[in-house]
Amino acid sequence: AQLALSFNQMAAHLEQTETMRRQLIGDVTHELRTPLTLIQGYASLLGSIVKENKDASDLIQGIVTGERRLLDVVNNMVDVSKIDNQALLVRKSAISVYLIVKIVHNEFKVALQERKILLSVTELEGLPDIQADPELLGKMFRQMIGNAIKYTPDGGSITIQGKKLCASEAGWDGKEAVEIEIIDTGIGIDPAYHEVIFDKFYQMGPVELHSSGKTKFKGGGPGLGLAIARGIAQAHGGRIWVESPGHNEETFPGSRFHVLLPVGN
Ligand SMILES: Nc1ncnc2c1ncn2[C@@H]1O[C@H](COP(=O)(O)OP(=O)(O)O)[C@@H](O)[C@H]1O
Ligand SMILES: [Mg+2]
Fold first, then answer.
1. Is there an atom of ligand 1 within 6 Å of 73 CB?
2. pLDDT tens, residue by residue, 236-253
3. Which is deepest, 58, 197, 249, 255, by most CB within 10 Å?
4. What is the CATH number of the domain that holds 80?
């Protein structure tokens, strides 16, 4: 009985520590966001004042770029922290997945051109509207499409397709769903890692590369993208998983990410 008691106390203590840790990440990232936004504002103001001076402008551009990347990481941490605390606010309305994917596709146009990657979107127009949060779904697809670009070599291709599943196919009781697939011709993922890549801070690339841009081949990232994508899918009652025959940087077996989202509430 004594043993059970101390075990329970230990478990309670652990849970408390975990709650405090989560709270801390949430608070710290929140506090970081304000000064970062200030720096960004002042740097771009300074940029407009010295715009005739090429050297000064270039230096300020460097500050703005670095700052933007930092803000991006902090924003991702805020999202992960919300997901951890089940505090993600989902504002649902009837939305077209096709439209959201198109918007995100557009954001990556320059990167896709630079990397000579062909992204094609097929079969999404015919899908029914779904009850979902447009901003969150945009975030989810941004992470997944960003990854597909990052882990596909120059000259590769990405296909985004989707289909509607009836209730029995989706495996939910009485709910219709849409299934979106993001297929790339990239380096692929070893089956041993198909689950852990969705954990926060998990990444397989070497850390040395992490200062390079996020759409560069195997470029940097803090390993939060798929944790956010999964958190968003789950907050909508959906699922997300990956299929890939394995990792190979010579034959490029590619990866196929699936997202299943319920059509209704
Ligand atoms: N499309 C993909 N092809 C190959 N590997 C991928 C792909 N998407 C994700 N991964 C692997 O999963 C890891 C986690 O992805 P993510 O959470 O987005 O972190 P990050 O992009 O910051 O590294 C990546 O580091 C990479 O190893
Ligand atoms: Mg990523």
1. no
2. 999 999 999 999 999 999
3. 255
4. 1.10.287.130
